[in-house]
Each structure stands twice: as structure tokens, then as C-alpha cells.
Amino acid sequence: MFSSIFSKYAIKSTARHQLMAPQMLLTTPRRFIDLHEFQSKFIMGKFGINVQRGQLAKTPEEAAAIASTLSNKGGLILKAQVKAGGRGKGKLTSGLKGGVQICKTPQQIQDFTKQMLGYNLITHQTPPEGLLVKSVLVHEGVDIDKQLYLAILHDRKNQGLCVVSSVKGGMDIEEVAKEEPEAIKVHTIDIRVGLTDEIAAKVIDSLQLTGKLREQGIEQLKKLYKMFNDLDATQIEVNPWAITPEKDIYCVDAKINIDDAALFRQEDLAQMYKDGAGSTSAADYDVNEEKAVAAGLNYIALEGNIGCMVNGAGLAMATMDIIQLKGGKPANFLDVGGGATTSQVKTAFEILSQHHQVKAIFVNIFGGIMKCDTIAQGIIDAAAQVKIDVPVVVRLTGTNADKAFTLLDEFSKSNKSTMKLIVNPSFDSAAQTVVQAAAQ
Amino acid sequence: MSIFINSASKVIVQGMTGSEGTKHTRRMLASGTKVVGGVTPGKGGQVVDIDGTSLPVFNTVAEAMAATGANVSVVFVPPKFAKAAVIDAIDAVMPLVVVITEGIPVHDSASFYTYAQTKGTTQIIGPNCPGLISPGKSNVGIIPSDITGSGPIGLVSKSGTLTYQMMYELRDIGFSTAVGIGGDPVIGTTHIDCLRAFQDDPETTAIVMIGEIGGDAEERAAAFIAEYVTKPVVGYVAGFTAPEGKTMGHAGAIVSGSSGTAQGKKDALEAAGVKVGQTPSETARLLRAIMGRQQ
Predict the structure, then answer these.
(1) Considering the entire predicted model, what is its pTM?
(2) A424 Cβ under 8 Å from any chain B Cβ
């Protein structure tokens, strides 16, 4: 029997640099809402899904008061609320080891909370200085007899939905897929008919649940499916889906991804996301990423030294690839989109020039709807207000490219800026030029 | 010939009276597309003048089709109303619906896609795509019409600007049709649908396929090419340097059986006999070599 070992299961609240960044790249403009654990648990509770009872506290006294209302039979769990994984193994700047504590009494909860609130929690997913803990979650532990795995997600292959189930819960499911693929079952759902009784029963039977647990499993699965649809989720992953000695089934840890394109009809979630972001340290977010989001730009900071400004996610990725191929390293992904204004271009330039590692900037634009002279004017406006002391290589092709070159040429000759501007209409040779410029 | 559209295509614009719709109707007309009207619920009966062309506005797609004989619809309706607009087109038995709108919730796309599958009478391209162009014949969407002219190359791509870049690289040869299928998790027309159409199109003699990291569409396309396509295909995949991470989450990778990485896609395409370029220009060079065309 596994007893109250939830400290291992810090909710996978997707540190941005671990999961969100590549997601953004993959699906172009989509971001996923990133919720705190207490928010996920609260939402699941509202849908009638079994989660451990508990509440959020902002003071040690409040934490103790919450603990005194809970059953300590399976232990009392205290978790620092920051949006990062690896909290159990993390370290607080107060000296406390572990952002997740298993306690027996409200007094213990209060003591540990004192060592969490107001301090930074450092885990392998946080910035080196850690993230400020502004609140803690206090909830009941439950004893676990058996751990299962369950996920509901969009299935690209069948352009529908599927449920993934496994009796091998509580561990990395990709490892299970490698070691024991037969332990994972994928059930396709036709969204026109939804999750039928027949499929629900098939899923639960694949998890070898019988009697009372079989009924509860079917009922809980249906609630999870309803939540998936009602919340515009793109994925819900429950791991472990845990069975207690009393034969109840609990979502002990869950990762919920919400489609941000649906926020216009998910007002509660939008608000929750806003609140959640507010309780996270600013250090969680790259300042430039915040600025980019505010300006409607799609920006991700990377490790290299060549700043990139490109229109379109595909061309932006191709630009990063070609820089690497020529021996350079991109400092970022930045897609200014299809209809950028001069002010957006100016902001993009500010962001790039503030990136301290940047040794050269590469502007790569294929003008379609986007006019090349708009980009050129944005560069000129930026140069007037921001000191840009690294070489800027500009490659422009397409709509109004000639106009753009004239503007840039006049600007270079006017001595209004000390900016070193290199114009090159060829994608390949411009990339070569910028890599050389950055190496100097 | 061309695929999906031709010089006889009669196009209606859903959302024509909105700013995006108006802007792109103007561009489509300027590139010679036969735009015959627009649909905006509640604005039926109005007439919009766009650069000297009077276009009637209808409340529904069915009315627009009855009055104009339109056989293609292009959708510029905002995300909130896009699902209803596409369903309206499917109910009207519109043969081809090109959804340009970006930011449609995946649940909505999945819903109208499966609805179209059930009816079996409407092909959807997109959403979140630049549309398609058969240069000199018809231009449905937002692809610039002045990059290149008509020719023997067929192109299918997830990405908009990479489509433009590749058309530019091969502008001296020209294209039968270039299709931007979009990169959303749920899309109406896939790489495979386009590859099949290009294989069956007598005017197309060579095919360029552009992919991106994420999903497993390229891997499935590779299997399809090995089985069905006899015309030469060259490929390009963007995203080799994208930051590492769980691209689709654990469960997603398990369901697709694919890592979703650029390298995985390149390997799959090469195993199917597709030459894959490391850059857009190298891809263009590979195609030239196959076609025996000097630059």
C-alpha cells in the first residue's frame, strides 16, 4: 500500500519554459491557460469530480484553521503555490527543504507555512532565484491502494477525441508506453455522439475496476468528459487516478489545458487565470515576453545571440533553423504576425535590443498582407527612440519591398541614427551575413 | 487544370461586410477571382461596391448560392461566429469552404469538421490558413497574387509565409495550385488530401510539401506518398531549432506514436523517397534538379 506519498505528485502546472514555449511554436498563436493547483482542484470539485478537500491560505493562522476542519486520517498536505513543477524536491529561501509537506496536526501546518509564505521556492523548473510563495494549499491526504492513469484529449489523427487509460498510473506515462505498450489503451470518441455508456464502460473495464468502483469510475469519467467539453479543454490528464482502501476513486493530480482561443466564452477561467498570474512572481515571466504579449507579438526568449524579427510562425522557425545551419544561434522566436503596425515593429525592436546577449539583429520579412515599408518605418521609428548599437541585417521581399529599401537607404544616409544597417534581399545570404556580424 | 479551384470558381465571402472581409474581397477581385457576393446574417439585401464591382449581400449561404451559383465560400467571420458560419455553408451544401479565420476554438473546429464529414458534401480547407491560389485562375484567401504565375508545381503547406517564400523561390517555374492548409490541431483538408489531388491533376508534374513541428501529419503524408504518389515530391520541414520540450504532452505523443520533431518528420519523408531541403532555397534547388530546370 502506498501511503500518503503525494509529495511526489506536485501538480504539473507547466512552467512556461518547459512546456508552453514549444506549444506556442507548435500551434502558432495558441497559448494554454496555466492554472494553479488549487484552481484546478476547485474547478474539478465544481464538476463533482472527487478531489481531496482543502483550501487556499494566505497566512499561517489561516492555514492552521483550514487544517483543523479537515480529516488528518491520511495526513494533512501543505503545498506552496507557485507555477512550477518539482516542488516536493524544491528548497525555500527560509532554509526549509520541500515545497510540499506532509503533516499530522494543524500546528505543524502553521509552522511550515511560516517558513513558506514570503520566501522564494527554488525548483529545477523555476528561475535560479526561485518564485515568491504568496499562498499555500492545505488539503487532506488520502491513502492509496492503486494508481491508475486517465487522459482525455483531442486526437489529431481521427480529428476527434480520445480517452487514454492505463493500469500503470503514478509514473511517467511515456516510460510506460516504451516499456509496456500493452498497458496503455486508447479509446476513440466520436464527438457527434459523445462519451456513450458503452465506451465509458469499456474504458473502466480496461482499468479492471469492478463492483462499486466500476460504477463510480464510469460516473467520474463522465464528469471529466463533461468538464473537458464545458471548459473548452484541449487535454485533461489525471495521474494518478487513485483508488483508496475504502474503494473510492480520487483525482490526486491533474493537468488541465484550456484552449485560450475559447476564453471569450470562458469568463470564469479567464478571471482565474488573471488572478493566478497575479499570485506568481514576476520572475516567472520573462519581462520581454510580457511586453510582447501586451503588444500582440508572439515572442519566446532563447539562449543564442542573434535577435530575430520575422512575420509568420513558419518563416520564423525557418529563420531560426537557417541561423543555426550557418553556425549561429538565435536569441529568440519572434513572430510579428500578418498585419503588424509600425508601433508593433517598434516594440519588437525594443524587445530585441534589450536582450543583453544580442550581438546582431535579423529582420526577415516576406511582405504579403504585411507591407515591407511598414516594417522599414517601424525600424526607423525604433532607431529614433532606442539606442541600437548592434548590426541590423534586413531582408525584405514582397509587397512594397522597393519602397522599404528606399526608406531605409534615405535613413542610413541622413545620419539620424548611428545604427549599422545591412540590407540584403536574399534569405540565405542575409542569414550568412547576420551570423558573421554576430561573431565579430 | 488545378486542384480544388479553377477559373470558373464562383466565390462568395462570408463576413464580406467586416473590415478583413472587405479588404481581402478587394484583393481577391484585383487578382481576377470571380467573387459573386457576400454573406452576413442580418445584412441581406444590401449591395456593397468594391472598386466598381457591385456585390450583393445575403443572409444565408443557401440564398447566396441560389442567387449567384457560387460553388466556393471563403470565411472571414470572427472566431466567435465562425462555427455558425461554417455550419450554414455545410447545410447549404457548399462544395468547398475555405476558413481563413484565426483563433477558432478547437472544440468548434472539431464540431464543424465532423458535421461536414457526416454530410459528406462539403470540403473544408483551414481554419487558420491563408487559403489557396491557382495563379491566373482563382485566388481564394489571402495569398499574395503577384509572387508568381501559373505552372506545373503543386504546393501544400501548413505555414502561410513559408508558402509565399517557396512560391518566390520557384517563381520562374510557376504553380498549378498552392494550398495553405493551416496548422491547427483540427483541419479540414490535410497534406494527404492535397497530395492525392496533385497526383491526380494532369497539369501538376512535381509537388512541394512544407511541414512544421508538431502532430504527425507529415509522417502520415510520407506513408501516403510511398503508397500512392508517383510524381516527384520534395519536402521542407521548419522547426529543427525549436526549443526542446514535450511537444504535445505525454498523452498526445502516445496517441500519435510520433515525437512531432522536425528530425522525425524529415526521416519519415526521406524514407518514403522524398528529398528534403534544409532551407527553402535548398528545397527549391532539389526540385529544380528533379525537374531539370536551370535557374
Answers:
(1) 0.88
(2) no
